[in-house]
From TrEMBL:
Keywords: Cell membrane, Membrane, Transmembrane, Transmembrane helix. The keyword Cell inner membrane does not apply. It comes from Paracoccus onubensis. PANTHER family: CHLORAMPHENICOL EFFLUX PUMP RV0191, PURINE EFFLUX PUMP PBUE. It is a multi-pass membrane protein. This is MFS transporter. The chain crosses the membrane at residues 12-34, 46-67, 79-96, 102-124, 136-161, 167-185, 206-228, 248-268, 300-327, 334-353, 365-385. Its main location: membrane. One of its GO terms (molecular function) is transmembrane transporter activity. It is found in: Cell membrane. InterPro entries: MFS, MFS_dom, MFS_Efflux_Transporters, MFS_trans_sf. It comes from the Bacteria.
Amino acid sequence: MDYLLKDPRSWGLMLAAMLTIMSNATITPSLPGLEAIFADNPRAPLLTRLLITAPSLLVACVAPFAGAMTDRLGRKRPLLIGLVIYAVAGTAGLYLDSLEAILASRLALGLGVAAIMTAQAALVGDYFDGPARGRLMGYQMGATNVGGLVFVTLAGALAATDARLPFAIYGLAALLLPLLAVILPEPDRFSGAVEHAGGSGDSEPGWRMTVTVMTIAAGLTFVIFYAVPTQVPYHLRGIGLEDPRSAGLVMGAMMFAAAIMSVVSGLIRPRLGRIGTPVSGYLSLATGFAGLATGQSLPVAMISTALIGAGLGMCMPTFVTTALNVAPARRRGLVIGLVTASIFLGQFLSPLASQPLVTHLGYSGAFRIGAFAFVALAAALTVTLHRQAGPRSTNPIRRMPAEPGRKS
């Protein structure tokens, strides 16, 4: 067994990361029901879609600052504060009586997500090194998608009873708070030990440009990808699949495939390289979007979203791991904050980009445009990284630790 899976810190980081995917996708099966509950609100069609991506706006705005704060003040305190905010704001949809109020609570939820995501990702870089870091990022994304599979499927069942019930799932953060407080120690450099990696010698030459490319690629990926959770429930209704459990199954297939591929990506990334791994992921994403554009049944929709999940599972660990690998230790929080902000800004912008396409081209036309966009991104990323760094783009720095224990 991989020693990472015997380390309680690994499991703590995976549990914390699991909350980040819950922040948006958990209430996806509730969207049609919430729109019906608030049918007297003329803005309900747009506002219900924004409930999915509202946390992303706050994360996009504050994640760079949250990351910089973790570089100065430590990782653990922001993580625990984020868990408290997450639990309180996430469950507010159970009792708030207007879409506007629920939207405000979703914005507050974004503050908690920003703190959790930047702190836990920086801890990955602090606790582990070299290939172990890449493997843990794969395990971590796998855990988030297994959690997503469980919680979105559960949310689909709950939404069939009451569209508000899925908001209760966010209370998991309160249960995790005492556990993570115990098993995630503050890294030595924030707890009185000698400052670690104060210079830039531990970074890759040209790291700023590489981080910029990874940040932009991650953001654009999510602008397109998030058409799935925001539009697929309505697309399914349009082809006659009106049961909320159908949306839960389709989203579950995506998350299950993403979980498997995230773990596998850590094994195949050394062979495919920094360019080949996300490009392969983009081609899988394009195929899945094309399937959604042409399919008219639940099995086809599930296969298509599974391909989409597998593609995302190849892309996203690579973007984050590459950013961590090339950046100096003293900048990890800021770098992860920038990547996080880009991801969540893409999520927030997604319905604003996809809804006009749906209006003019229909759901099939919008998904078809998404397929072409991923092919274009694959080509652009290949050309950009080849020009930017040449051989370095496929050989990130790897500092092998002598022992699998905590870095000092």
